Amino acid sequence: MRARLAWLLQLLAAAALAVTAYLHADLYVHSYRVIPKVGVAFLLQASAGFAIAALLPLCRLLLMRIAAAALSAATLGGFIMSRTVGVLGFTEHGWEPAPQAALSVVAEIGTLLLLVVAIGLADGPRLLGLLGALSRRPRIGELDSAA
Question: How many domains does the structure of the chain reveal?
Answer without folding.
Answer: 1
